[in-house]
UniProtKB/TrEMBL annotation:
Protein name: Uncharacterized protein
């Protein structure tokens, strides 16, 4: 094989790999789109047409806008609780207490008095209202669900990399590891 034909074969291989990556990215986007649609974060521009993740005019639902407004913490949990009315019957102090659930652990935990304060002199928190307890329960359920889904997705991505690295190409490309059920 001549050097020119070797380069041509290499170029064709790269083109084939690029097309494979494009196809995989489209599939992953379609899966993510379906999940966002099913969970009520986005809505189709035309409800009478079949779902098309590449159609123009897709828009966020109020739940989607609420989630998009939060940049850190658990945006899907925060936005969903807010959009679903979970804070409607809470006082401002209770809302602030609820938001404390999403502080990074390093900032919110630590032994009392480590900053020189006496632990007996720390403020006593008021008894939470039934509405706040209900919001805590709803938040906890959502956080557990979303964390589990995201952890499985993360593990699937790591598993695909490991399988690929070990040369198990057939398992890496197996439909189960690329199915919407795994995401």
């Amino acid at each position: 094989m001549t050097p020119a034909s070797q380069r041509l074969v290499a170029i064709l291989d790269v083109d084939k790999e690029l097309e494979s990556c494009r196809t995989q990215l489209r599939k992953e986007w379609a899966d993510a789109y379906g999940w966002l649609l099913d969970m009520g974060f986005i809505e189709r521009s035309d409800p009478n047409s079949p779902p098309d993740p590449f159609a123009p005019g897709q828009k966020l639902t109020p739940r989607g806008y609420a989630c998009a407004a939060f940049a850190d913490g658990y945006p899907l949990v925060l936005g969903t609780v807010v959009a679903d009315g979970g804070l409607e019957h809470l006082t401002l102090a209770e809302i602030a207490s609820w938001l404390c659930l999403f502080l990074r652990e390093g900032r919110s935990r630590g032994p009392p008095g480590r900053d020189g304060r006496n632990k007996e002199s720390m403020l006593q928190l008021p008894e939470p209202s039934p509405a706040l307890l209900e919001t805590f329960d709803y938040t906890d359920e959502l956080a557990y669900h979303f964390e589990a889904v995201m952890r499985v997705i993360s593990y699937m991505e790591v598993l695909k990399d490991v399988l690929l690295g070990l040369g198990f190409y057939e398992m890496w490309a197996h439909p189960i590891s690329n199915s919407p059920a795994s995401t």
